[in-house]
Amino acid sequence: MVVGASPAQRLWPALARTEQREEPLEGLDRIAAGLQGRFIRRRVNERERQFATGILQVSEAMRDFTEAQFDERVLAIRERAHRVARLDPEALREAMALGVEAIRRTIGLRLYPEQVLGALVLHRGEVAEMATGEGKTVTAILPAALAGWTGQGVHVATVNDYLAKRDAALCEPAYARLGLRVAVLQEGMKRGERRRAYDADVTYGADKHFIFDFLRDRLEAPLAPSVVSSVLDEVTHADERSAWTGLVVQRGLHSAIIDEADSVLIDEAATPAIIALPAPDGMGVDTMDHFAAGLGLARELEETRHYIADARAHRVSLTRAGRERLAEMAADPVRCLPPFWAGPRRREELVVQALNALVLHRRDDDYIVRKDAQGKHEVVIVDRSTGRVLEGRQWQLGLHQAVEVKEGIEPSERRHTAARVSYQRYFARYRKLAGMTGTGWEVAPELWRTYGLRVVRVPTHRPIARIERPDRVFAKEEEKFKAVADTVRRAHQKGQPVLVGTRAVRDSEHVAQLLAEHGLVCKVLNARHEAEEAAIIERAGAAGAITVATSMAGRGTDIKLDDAARRAGGLFVLAVERHHERRVDRQLFGRSGRQGDVGEAAALVALDDEMLVRYGLPPLRWLAKVCPPALRVPLTRLLVRQSQHAATRRWMLMREEAGKIDAWVDLAFHQQSR
Amino acid sequence: MAGRRGRDIATTFSDLWYRVGPTRPALSVHARVVRQYYGPSVTYIVEDPASGQFYRMSESAHFFLGMLDGKTTVDQAWQACNDQLGDAAPTQREVIELLSRLQMFGLMLGESALDAEMLEQRLHKARQQRLRKRTGRWMFPHVPLVNPEPVLRRHASLCRALFSPAAGVLWAILVLVALGLVIANTGRFGDALNHVAQLSPTTIATLGIVFIVLRILHELGHAVACKAFGGRSTEIGVILIAYVLPLPYCDASSAWLFPKIWPRVAVSLGGIFAESVLAALAALYWALGSDPTWTSIAYQVMLVSGVSTLLFNLNPLLRYDGYYILSDLAGVHNLTQRSREMLKYLLERYAFGLKGARGPSYRSAFEAWLLVVYGLLAMPYRIFIAIAILLLISSQYLTLGVVIAVVMGALWLVYPILKSIGYLASESRLEGHRARAWGVTLAALAIVLGPVMLAPLPTPAYAAATVEPARMAGLRTLEDGWLAELLIEPGQAVEAGQVVARLENLALRAELELMQARLAQAQTQYRASLTGQPAEMEEYSQALLLATEQYERVRRRIADLVVVAPVSGRLSPLQGQASSDMLAMVGGFLRRGTALGMVISEQELVVRAMVPDRDHAFVFRGQDAGDVRARVRLANEPGRVVDADVLTIAPIGSRDFSSQALSSQAGGSVMADPRSSSERPMALTPSFVIDLRLIEAPTAAVSGVRASVRLDGPRLPLGVRWWRRASQFFEGRTWW
Fold it and tell me: Which of A356, B46, B169, B653 is the most exposed place for a label (fewest CB within 10 A)?
């Protein structure tokens, strides 16, 4: 049994240069690759079904094995997996069957054919789309075990610590039965602990841990410029701790299975992972007090006359009049800017930055203000699609400080990037990448284009019993919020547990207040209440429970119904607003009707919802407003689809832009790559 | 690379700074940095001697680069820049861009020496780039042939002498004299032009040779000029235009490093200088010389050098010498690319409403205008030249021409269209303005193409035709006999009743003599019987009558030995025979009723045209034959167009030729089916034969002459016409 990886094991994979596209695709190539991704996404076929059935049959036959017999077979397969690059179908069948049987013996679950199908898809390095509640966690055991047996370590990534811990705890007995060690990465672990975690056969963790450990490794132990010098280095320092392999935590990126693949690979990839350190002396100019000055100037400008805020493109630009006004103000000695920012070019840049903070970034939507451990206020970013706080992340280039000044908080120390890698480039480094998600179909083109991942849809085991009601449409937001209370009350009176989904933190609090006014007691789950997440989710499935949540409740949370709730008609999910991404809507609705349970889902749409205003085509919106009521629902559905499409596209382009910049710098400075 | 350029580099800070900030690079000693005056301002050029690439940078960037000595960090240098230059200091993004560019050139020295792996990668990149140049972007591969540098170096003083002021004066005198001579002989010049324009095979051959010689001289001129002003020229080779036409080139790019404007311009002019010397000498010989062959070659030298200089070399709209001269004189570098960026910027800013769009930087209003005007002129001119080259190539080489036309059409037309679609569909900068961008583009297309596609235009159809007589009469012998003589040569005009040929029949003559004798005997006997018995007289009178009758009959047969033209017209051999066949009959025996030839009436001629069936459907759809306007151009009088009426239209189409002269085997323009027999050739595609009557027959209208006919169908919009053509094309073809 291998305990810890040898230096050689650590060294080689890090040196082996993985095949990477040098530059992201552009223009027609990009369109072609997108079309290709759309074209090759598929459903599972008959051959795979037969293979899955075959695995289940073989595993049936293993039920009579004694423990010793079982161990013997495991050892044989493991030895083989260690040796050959690819298992032949016969061996693959047996290996999978061993996994199925191990799960039955330890966790007590019998896998469905659909789960085995999902496992096959993962093993092949594709993205399995499995409906929510189909037992993805257990499914991942089979491919992870196969990868673990090769001895190179497999990373199972998910969206947060809570889910990683839960999944690892659930699966550990099965892995142990298969002779594999499991470890979980958690926030606050020391480097030594992390190193041990990576030495395990299967490492569970939130995606950010994997990527930041990678970055920290690069920081602590920069790679020597070439293979030759690395090896020389290693040999000459073989017995010292300073050797490169003694410093790094990870032992190469071999294979990864990503739970909630679309969230990790697509949504989180919008911003690169950055390790920022407080600026050491001599780095950067003294820029601490200019934000206030910039904001002061920005507050005096008028919209449309002096600047144009393009919410859709998320961009502010100054008009000619704005520039002139700025020049006038700058000439005023009373509110003069620091000399560094006084020139026209930097002055305008500073004011645009301030306007960005003022106009485009909104409190309790894009960010929240909370108290940190020392009782000081701080601005933290809320992720748009997961609704979670992005711990320790800052907007770059002074934007964060500008927002802090806007909120009247002492601007935090400006930090400088010390290492950075985009999600796109990090995950593309894995030799073998697989993912599973409930919603991958829509992002198939992008997954193919950026990661070369193909999406395969796995059918549900039981038909979905969830009833999805058509959207209810309102002209004004206020009318909509009035209807929320009524709708919730009706379901509540039936005894159904209710989950109200909102987009922004602000909305969730507003809804909670409304419900309280109507005498309905509810629990709120948003970025401010992450600590209580587990407890809130636990109770959300009880009869009569009312939970108001942002899209935080959308991913991986398993709301278990009690019997009374099931009798009352299951969980009722009410989306107060359509999200920018259709996937997020689908995830939220997927909280109800899990594993064939009954359930209900509905969404409310107001024609002045932020998303429709920002992304909807004006003529279509106007039409929906003035048309006869009979046409309003279908027209609104069209409008929602169109807006979601536009929004999704917009964010996709921003992600690609982020990836491009990284690729470009890598290309120019690749020998210093870190 | 293109997407990178447009990225905003105006923000002072960059989150990528951590990568370069702490490093301590220095410019490699191999890099040559040259200060250059460009118009009113100063720029710096860095040359990578290994790859021959150049990078141009601003003064502030150069200031920054100057501070990097390998001991200072990039960050320190940048801060120092900020202290000294203030707002004009390069932004972090600009610095990163500058350093990464130099890094890619291999011109930066880092803290650690470059390792072998890196060098290898770089070499690979450079090799790829060179290969791309060789294999030819836009189908213009470069094949290097010789390195003129050693020879030039040995004769450097000669080079300098050739480009000295004295040489300039001599050159001016020579050119002025030559021009004077040409102007004095303007008339002769025009005549010779007509002669050359006929493009006989010999002319084409000599033109080709003259062209190549001139080009070689031109390129040598650049090389010599480059040496004369202290540069190096290390490569002379051949560009294969479209892989077919060889064109010499010379790499004189070291001249780009000349600090002063005038030497740079002189190097650009060197080629034209050399060419003009030869052209002037040729003009002298042409005006004064006597040998006709050499005179014509001298003329061609003048012509070719004049045309290529004015149309290509001195023309700044194409990227030849004129272009570089213009950019040097106006002090504007990268004209083409920047004018394109400028137009794109104007389009994005004003047509698509992109408020944040950023154009190329320019230093003065003059430069901005130059970019705009140049862009607007150059693009159409280039398209025009491209299409002209396409047409020229495809007309010269038939099958190869089609292949080249398809490939070039794809490169010059289809690829830009696809690229624009890609730009409109996925350019991230257009986000938020995409609907407008599409709208504006489609609207502009509709405005330009709408009238063209929708306005009814005459639908011309062109057909090959021959002039044919409307009537003709055969010449047949009336009596057996040997053809004694043809009185009229075939092809000559005859009057009705005029004798065309005379036959000889000796047996008939003998019979006539016999009959004459018999007649005389009968007369004598009759006269003698007048004195005898009345019954006897009766008997002889009968005999006399018989003899007279027999004699008369033979005499008439003799008279029939003459062949007389039945109608006025022109004597012509039989269909399918030549006049020599007719002449060969002289002396031969002809049976009665043998056809000798025919007389073709010239009073009435028709033009018989073969209209391809696909055009037939167009022209005669929805209008009467009488309404169709037809115009005829005769091959022997190409300058004149004659109106004609449609007389008859063949009811069915067929693949027979209305006249053999139209078949491609006989040099006509209608493709003959190679599988058909040579006795009865068939056309490749069916056509309808229509007869046209010329409204006023020109004198040149002689039967047998080829003609081309233009038929105007009903006025149809272009869109409808293309649609019908397309459906015709797909009609009757099985595609799946």
Answer: B169
